[in-house]
Amino acid sequence: MTLTAIAHGPISSELIPVKTPAMRHDVPPCLESLPGRVLESTELRDLVDRLAGETARWSEQVAFSDEHRHYVSVYRDAFVDIWLLCWTRASDTGWHDHDVSSGAVAVVQGTLVESNPRFGRRHRSRRVAAGSSFSFGSDHLHRLTGATDDTVSVHAYSPPLWRLGQYTLTPDGVLRRMSVSYADELRPLEAG
Ligand SMILES: [Fe+2]
């Protein structure tokens, strides 16, 4: 079995920015009612769904690059952290887990592809289009890639990300996990 990279389509130079907000808030309204504890995955999904609709906090941060996946910290406290991510079809996280954190993703614009690895079978893969969201527990392992050159997504994790596991296969097929910082850009690792 090989952990096969998801094929990318041709890169388009057409970028479609999200609408500029008419007003800006220091704290998105949906964050004012956080319970002050670690959130369940279903609560995280509800949070990203609501925050996806509250564009004032994050829409000015939207930017796209084929060289680096653009990501911005929207909010972080002791129990939850929230990120804005912008994707092109060159964007690929590689296989990773989220250590002890549960998470949720809401796609605001464009489309993401989420893949889950399977031994001895084709990896599971699904497209997550704008207006859709999903959540997962700390046992989840996946890979996210941009399916369009203008994809924007909001991500929430609880407890806040601190370390993540990034996976690669050695040339003789041994799966390895590398612990990386939440501040590092996830990307496919070269087999070593
Ligand atoms: Fe992830």
Largest sheet: 6 strands, antiparallel
Instruction: Give the overall form.
Output: globular
Name the hetero compounds present. fe (ii) ion
Q: Strand fraction band?
A: 35-45%
Following the backbone from N to C, one meets helices and strands in this order, namely HEEEEEEEEEEE
Mean pLDDT: 84
Strand order of the largest sheet: 6-5-8-3-10-11
- End-to-end gap: 16 Å
Radius of gyration: 16 Å
Helical fraction equals under 10%
Count of DSSP strands: 11
Q: Give me the secondary-structure category.
A: mainly beta
Unreliable stretches (pLDDT < 50, length at least 5) are 1-25
| Tally of alpha and pi helices | 1
Task: Set out the fold topology.
Elements: H1 41-52, E1 70-76, E2 81-87, E3 96-97, E4 102-109, E5 111-116, E6 124-129, E7 133-136, E8 141-146, E9 151-158, E10 163-169, E11 175-181
Antiparallel strand pairs: 1-2, 2-9, 3-8, 3-10, 4-7, 4-9, 5-6, 5-8, 10-11
Describe the 3D structure:
This protein is mainly β and 192 residues long. The longest helix has 12 residues, at 41-52. It has one helix at 41-52, and strands at 70-76, 81-87, 96-97, 102-109, 111-116, 124-129, 133-136, 141-146, 151-158, 163-169, 175-181. 6% of the residues lie in helices and 35% in strands. It is built from one helix and eleven strands; from the N terminus they run αβββββββββββ. β1 and β2 form a beta hairpin. Strands 6-5-8-3-10-11 form a six-stranded antiparallel β-sheet, with no helix packed on it. Fe (ii) ion binds next to β8.
